[in-house]
Structure formats: C-alpha cells, structure tokens
Amino acid sequence: MREHEFIDWIVAQTKLDPATVPVGPGDDCAVVRFGSSDVLVTTDQVLDGVHFRLSEHGPRAAGRKAMARNLSDVAAMAAIPTAAVATVSLPRGMDRRDVEDIYRGLRSVGDAFQCPVVGGDVGSWDGPLAISVTLLARRAGVTGGIAPILRSGAKPGNALCVTGSLGGAWRTAHHLEFTPRIAEAICLAMNYGVKAMIDLSDGLATDLGHLCRASRVGAEVLAEAVPVSPAASELTANPAAALHAALCDGEDYELLFALPSRLARKLCDAQPLPVPVTRIGRFVAGDEITLVHGDGRREGLAGGWEHTT
Questions:
Q1: Where are the beta strands (DSSP E) in the chain?
Q2: CATH number for domain 159-300, candidates 2.30.42.10, 3.60.20.30, 3.90.650.10, 3.30.470.10
C-alpha cells in the first residue's frame, strides 16, 4: 500500500459539509469554518529511528523537528501559525532533563513563529520516543484576506518553481535545523499569484506527484534546472547521483509551487525572498510526470519517501 492510496481511501470514506469544512483530508492542512472565520488544522509526528535518532541527535532536536514539521505544513498553505498541542510518548525511565529538553525543542521553534504550546498529553511506554504535534493556524493578511493555498490549483502552462536547494538533508543537520518557509510562502501568495503549493518533506518526486494528483495535471521537470544542494553534491562525484538525491531524498522542507509563467519570470528575476527561487519546469495536461534531460532524453519521475512501506 502506498501512502497516497491510503489517503485516497480515507477521503472516500469521509463525508464533510463544505460549509463547515471547506478543506478536508488530503491537503497540508484541513480548513474548518467557524462563522466567518477559518481555522487551519494540521498534525504530524516524529518517531525515534524514523525521523531522528535519539541517541545521536538528542531530545531537544527531536522536539524542535516535531514542531517545525507542522509549521512547514502551515507554510505550504501560506497561513499564520497560532497555537500547538503536543502528545509525547516517552520511553519508560527517560531522564527528566531529557523530557524537559523535548519541551525546550518544541518551544524553540514555536516561539520563533509566535506559536505557543498550549496543551497536550504525556505518557510512557516500552517503545521508542514518539512526538505528535497538532497545530492551529489562521489566514494570513491584515484582515485574513489571503485564502489558503491548496494543492489542487495548478493548471497546464503554469510554471513549476521551488525555493532553496534540495538533497542530502538527512545526511546533514538540515532535517533537524531547517527553517519553515512561512514568511516566504505569505510573500509568494500576496505578490506572485501562487496557484498551488506543497512543502517538500518526502522528496520532490513524491511531493510533486501529490501536487499533480490533486490538481489533475502532469508536469515536466528540467533536470539541469533542479537546484542540487551542496550537501548532495558533496556526497558523490557522480552528477546523476547528486541529482537523484535532490529529487528523492526528502526532508528538505522547501516550497514547491505553481504560478503563472509571467509571474514566475518576475519572481525569478526579482529574487525577493531570503532564499533563492528556481523555475524547474512546467505543468502540462494529462497525468505524466517527466524528467527532461539537457540532451532531450525523457524519463518518468518517481521515487521519494513512502511512509507506509
């Protein structure tokens, strides 16, 4: 079973009133409507041995990553985080100082984005450390006028762009120390007509697939345009292997998004964000996702992280 297949099954079982839940399962956040106000809700977890190694990285880094992953989901919707609750399953007998460091890690990145931890639950068991965070957010803009950016708005002809550089995150401290792109996402939504967006947690190949399925489009990615991170390049002297890392490694937490071609040119010329923005391809009609090499070779783009395999 693949992750997106399980999510599709959940969506098929879910009957929601769009008047009260405009956005349900399948996007980076759900949107719940209370009167004239929208509340965005997202939840994510980190597991020792899967998303971090407690013995190597320590409890504070684990707490930070648990919060930052959720903040990155809020960034993908171009929203503003408001508050968080955390559930922590502690290995039995864990030292109190280590438990306090988990909280300090949660707070360190939450405080940076004015997102306090307002509650949660703590328990212990015979398994490894597991941390789950649920985060509440609101619409951006002075009057909340910026609608959440969904995965489903890309159209054929839209440009495909990405922030930052990709690959090698798990092999460096990046997957623990990344900065959620909240300010960057709001700038893009306010000024550059972004039509669809997702954060890159599972790798460009996988997350572009999520974006294309939601928007019912295909995509062409220009291999030579993909911004390969220095970390990925340092892993191997083989450019093809470095490109594969950029496409499939995951844990980058950059933004992948669709916008009109004209505005993509304006954005890439202006470079208004604190991180680079690169146009790496375009969306096309159909459902194929293709990697296009400089010599004209074309191949299907697949790979990335699967949570359910």
A1: 30-34, 37-47, 79-91, 117-125, 130-139, 159-163, 196-199, 218-222, 255-259, 277-284, 289-292, 298-300
A2: 3.90.650.10
